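Take a look at the protein record below with the fold in mind.
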Amino acid sequence: MTELILDDGAFTALSEHQSPEQLYDELISRVKKYHPSDDISLIEKAYNLANMAHRDQLRKSGEPYIIHPLSVAIILAELQLDKESIASGILHDVVEDTIITDEQLRNQFGNSVAIIVDGVTKLEKIQYNGDKLEYQAENLRKMFLAMAKDIRVIMVKLADRLHNMRTLQYQSPERQIEIARETMDIYAPLAQRLGISKMKVELDDLSLKYLEPEVYYDLADKISIRRSEREKYVSEIVEDVKKHISNAGIEATFDGRVKHFMSIYRKMLNQDKTLDQIYDLFAVRIIVNTIPDCYAALGVIHEMYKPIPGRFKDYIAMPKPNMYQSLHTTLIGPSGRPFEIQIRTYEMHRTAEYGIAAHWKYKENSDGKRVEESEAEKMSWLRQILDWQVNLSDNKEFLNTLKSDLELYSDTVYCFTPTGDVKTLPAGSNPIDFAYAIHSAVGNKMIGARVNGQLATINYKIQNGDRIEIITSQNSRGPSRDWLNLVKSNQAKNKINQWFKNELKEDNIQKGRELLLAFCKANSVDPAKIMIPEYMNAILQKYGFRDWDAVQAAVGHGGLREGQIINRMKELYDKDHPHIISDEELIEDVNEMAAHKKLTVKRGGGVALQGTDDLAVRFSKCCNPIPGDEIVGYITRGRGVSIHRTDCVNIMALPEDERARLIEAEWEQDVTSPDNKDKFETGIRIFTEDRQGLLVDITRCLTDRGVSILNMNVRTSRQGTATINVSFSITGKDELRDVAAKLSTIPGVIDIERTTG
């Protein structure tokens, strides 16, 4: 049997503006097509509750809110997931956006549904002082922890993100870019990592649509113009292949599909080509019954067309980490244009399209009872993520490690152990990466390696098909810190760092203690007041440490910054002791303050204030506001009005009764003018790799832009990183943004943040 299917690889499109009732009927129809049980009571119950809970809510499009969870559930049904997943998709927003509680959900739908819904519920009640990266990382941590309990959490989250991307046109331009960027950086690669290519393709293309709209629509127009020509070419090839495959007695189904837009765009960028110069815009798939049929079909194809050397890949013998299996070969077509053919079985095709959803599908008997499976044990990557949860205490470090791993995964190398087991590593990996991929103990005791029977250096770049043997010794003193600069995989880096944390724990504890005390001294904080059990326990709970020694060790080895700890403890102390404030910020009497507020407008120091008396205006050293910042005035006793940033930690921590002393303030127009030459002090903190010549590059960058450096100090860590605090004079926030952007291009710079003092 042969059949030609033209497939664009995307999920089935739904008609726009369907009513909730129509969508619900569509959902039930799709579930019944694949589900062995006719009992839909759980889904019906979930729909009734969600419809009631969201009844007064509208989406930004103006449609009833219930449209969104129903659309999410339909995407899950297309992945052929079980009824609990479908119910969770319908209910995924009720705890976050309605009065329904987690306890009510658990009582009505059981633990499984409650765990899934909780896993995709954002941490709305936690405040991160405007730090979106911190907030994003904490939500991802929460999601991955929930995935450890139930892998279906990620299915619902990806379906939720996919529908939000489909309706992104109703968001503001700023939110469109923000959501699309997060989707491209996290969720599309995550779908690829889990093998769900149908989701990955659509998330990629929708991200491109909002991040590079001109590129997206230009590609869409040009590909549409050539559509008939392309379809004719594909049909000719398919007809020719079909005839030969049939003559060989192989039953097969064929489909032809165009590469998705993001794939074409990346190829144009990486190869510096125009669309007209990219000929393999499409792939022809041959789907057969058995693995022997795959190789038989490959033989037929290679007899028909000339294969391009080096472009054959056998992912059947060596599957990708996301379980993808297929034979790939690139050939020269009848007109001399290259094209790709993929050959796989039907089971492989389902795995390629649905990835983890195909393997972790919760199968049910006809009576509706689930057949228990232990498939989650096969997902080693998820276990690696959970290791990061424990070992990476800093949220931004966790987020950067996750992004890096997802990026590295896009290009992999396959190699073998001496016993023939396949190991998959990021391209560019060396024997150290290989050793830690086997086990931490092997990496920690490694003293050398053999590649294909020959001794090799530890920085040898592993090639596809290499056979690696690790040489170990019980007398080894452990890994070298230099290895951190050699290894490619995050898994190896984390295991090496973990070794140093454990081996040098006492040293790290002592160093961490010294850094914490030094930070207190430099910032005029009394450690005796803040380092009490109550505040220490709050830090332990926030970062997941067992005891205070572990916190000090984390600071000592660079996993946490001392400022994170001390500033948080100081915030807690200030909230508990609102009457204790610095001499600089002493509060004057309420009646006197009220008298000032009766006056009109006072100008001074480049700001306009509500309040007139001839009060002195000064800029607070705790947050160093500069033109462009949102500011607020604070009436003090005997020292006039101090100007703060609105996100200043001291302002945000003010008790309710003292907030009456805040007065409106704004920058005068001439101060914010591009022609203004007045200078204001500010500071940044630069996190970098520790390398020779770095300070020279940073100071040159600042002086070249006419920035006067007021102070600079540097602290290095044993992990080969450095933290550089720089204060300087600047005209305003626009110039600060330009300076930070320029500094970020210096090789070795990891991150830049604005300091609070």
Observations:
- The CA atoms of residues 129 and 473 lie 50 Å apart.
- Residues 1-9, 123-131, 360-378, 579-604 have pLDDT under 50 and may be disordered.
